[in-house]
Every structure is written in structure tokens, then in C-alpha cells.
Amino acid sequence: MATGTTPFWSAPGVDPRMVDVEASVQADALPREIARPLTEFLERALRRDARERFDTADDMLRAWRLLFDRLDAAHAGEAATVDADRLRAAATLTTSVTAIGLSARAVDAAERLEVLTVGDLFGVNLGDVERLRGVGLDTRRELVDARTALRRHLDPPAASTTADDETPDVQALDALVAQLVPKQTRKTSAQVDGLRRLRALGLERLHPGHGPIVEDPAAKLDGYIAHRLERERRIVGALEAGARSHDDLLAAAWDDVPAGLRLPATWTLEAHLEKLREEGRLPDGVGAGGA
């Protein structure tokens, strides 16, 4: 999952029983700031001789957590010394993404999209940012926020589209799309508001980043909005019935999804619960014993 490929012995496709070498991990496919320690962790976990692996599952878990504790501590120190606003105010289209106040995780995510400069960042499809594998919501949001701030600084004021001017208002579209990318808080309400604004544009068709062209945008967007509101209705119903753990809430609100596939829904559940918490509608004790 971390590299997008499976480990291999000697070469991809070789049966490990037929060779006498240790497992290889593609370190260059790992996030740059953690590639070395993570590679060492994975290679130790996959050692042929069990005596050379972690002694217990608890030892392995502690080593795993320590990797990211050290990374987060480094990022905290980095954030304290970087003035992102000042760097972005001085940026040009040719400025490297390493010089605009992004965290190491965000820089790594940008480079995976072949984004090396501010100009590249302007050209990237925001749908590709949202679909990056192995990249957290905060990191994706950081890239979107940086792009929006840089556009505000570098782009001249954009006029609204009129009957005589068919050039789209790129800044307005960026602001709208930013609402559709998951936020740290109020994700659900922000997404629904963004979908409603998109619905109000009266678009004739949608050209998604993948899949067929949508010829009836109004019906498609209405379906998305109804789906999100129905999921919230199910969560509220489960809470009113006494459910408090994540497992119980997932089982009630995502009963149409096989149990083995519900883990990704945990992120969406957390967003719904955060929205209810901010609205003062979340009962006490939610999350105890949850997933």
C-alpha cells in the first residue's frame, strides 16, 4: 500500500521459495522524508529468519508509531520557522514548490504529481490531488490552499463571465472546487454547499477527471446531495437509537456496504460527526470503543 507495489525477492514475479535473498522494497516510491526509516522497517518485518524480525506485534507497532512521531515532531519545528505567507507573496510562476512554505509531506505529494514549480501547481488537475493514494486529507487540503493563495497573489482580478465574454472566472471556480476537496472541519456541510453552488450554475454537462461525460449535471448533483444528506440522516437515527461506537454507527449508516469494506467510510463518518459536534447535535460518549 505504501509504495503501490508488492515486495519482491530478487526480481518481481520470482517465487521467494526459489531464491535465497531477502525481500526488496521500492524505497524510491515511498514519501521522500520517511523513505529510509520506512524501508528499514518493512525489510525487517519481512526478514526470512523470524528471529531477525520484530519480537512481538507490540514491538512492531511501537516501531511503526515511532517513525511517524519523529516525522510529526520534525514538521512541528518546520512549521514554527517557515513564514508561508511571506514566501508565497514573493513567489513567481517559476518558484520551486519547495520554496513556498509547504510541509515535506505536501512537497512529496506535489512531486508525485510532477509539480515542481508554482506554474506546475496552477496547471494540476485538482481532482488528481484529491485522488492521490497514501496522502492524508490535511496534506491534500494544504496543496489546495497553497494554490488558492498563490493565485490570489499572482493572477490579475478576473471578471465574471458575461454573454460577451466566454472566459470562465478561474478564481471563482478554484474557490468552488476548494469546497469540494475534503476540509479539516465541516467537510460534509462544505461539500454539500459546494455541490449546491455547482448545481446553481445551470451547467449543460460535466467533464469529470475520470469516467464518462455527465450529460445531465442537475440530476447527477442532486443525487450526490441526496446521498450525503441520507447518510447523515442514518447517522442521526443511529445516534438517537443509542449507538455510540464507530462500529455501531458504521453498521447502521453503511449497512449497504460489506463489513470488510467499511474502513474507508470511517473518514466520512468522522466528518459527519464533526459537523454534528459543531452544530451541537452530537451526544456525549460517541467514539468510545469505536473503530
Q: Can you tell me about this structure?
A:
The protein is globular. It is mainly alpha-helical and 291 residues long. It starts with 7 loop residues before the first strand and ends in a 13-residue tail after the last helix. It has twelve helices and two strands. It has a two-stranded antiparallel ribbon. Helix 10 packs across helix 11. It has three domains: 8-81, no CATH class; 82-184, no CATH class; 185-291, no CATH class.
Reconstruct the topology from this structure.
Blueprint: E1 8-9, E2 23-24, H1 35-45, H2 57-81, H3 84-89, H4 104-112, H5 118-123, H6 126-130, H7 137-154, H8 170-180, H9 187-200, H10 217-240, H11 246-253, H12 265-278
Q: How many E-type strands?
A: 2
Specify the biggest β-sheet: 2 strands, antiparallel
Low-confidence stretches: 156-171, 181-187
Whole-number count of domains: 3
- The DSSP helix count reads 12
Amount of helix: 40-55%
**Rg on CA atoms, Å:** 23 Å
Give the structural class: mainly alpha
**Percent of sequence in beta strands:** under 5%
Average pLDDT, rounded to a whole number, is: 77
Pick out its properties:
291 residues, single chain, mainly alpha, two-stranded antiparallel sheet
How would you sum up this structure in a few lines?
This protein has 291 residues and is mainly α. It has helices at residues 35-45, 57-81, 84-89, 104-112, 118-123, 126-130, 137-154, 170-180, 187-200, 217-240, 246-253, 265-278; strands spanning 8-9, 23-24.
